[in-house]
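Human: I would love a firmer grasp of how sequence relates to backbone shape in proteins. Could you go through the record with me and say what the backbone is doing? Here is the record:
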Amino acid sequence: MDYFTVEDLSISFGGVKAVKGVDFAVEKNTIFSIIGPNGSGKTTIFNMISGIYKPDRGKVLFAGKNIAGYRPDRVARMGIARTFQNIELFSNATVASNLLLGRHIYMKTGVFAGAFMWGKKSAVAKEEIHNTEIIEGIIDFLDLHMVRDQLVSNLPYGKRKLVELGRALALEPKILLLDEPSAGMNTEEKEDLRIWIKDIQEDYKATILLIEHDMNMVMGISDHIVVMNQGDKIVEGKPQEVQKHPEVIKAYLGEVRDNAQAAKH
């Protein structure tokens, strides 16, 4: 049964059509990947889903509503969280504080007020205790104990990516959008991430939309895949169907050829 649906989603920038009438449907508690060469429209789709961009045309249907054009904070309140291709963290705050910021939509006292009221006997004590429990659970889940009190700016890149993932989990999302989560990670970190994404699907009962260039990861954990090229959806199906499709091979060979030519100049 479809849980989340995109219909005829389209957007242009300066007359250039970045996404052209894209449709897809996502089943609950699955891992749904969107792949394609650089510039194919993948992150633009995420930006329209999360409210950063308002589509020119089309619908984003979730929980019985068309949320296309909702502000990002309203999308977050619907239970949709995301990570970014370029890390979006507060580098001069600790890991624990960054995770707490992921609770902002639930905090009646305000993010920073709440941060300094942990442990105090007040009207918001129950709220703070619950937020602390959520954050501690994420620290346990992602094995961040050793860095919990360190500034994000002092962490290696792979750890920063995990903190951003943890901050998204702090929202307790129904749908989690992961934009290139393994970018910049080494082989061991990627393998750990692959396990964590599957655990998020199973333990957190989240539906995951994944943009990822690591095809071993995509093919290994995805339930369903959409392939984009130059703003169009060109192929959709199970991993074993997609990886052998001639249009997919053509699109990726084209990217490899273009990158090779660029490297010569």
Notes: The chain has a mean pLDDT of 88. Residues 176 and 208 are 5 Å apart (CA to CA).
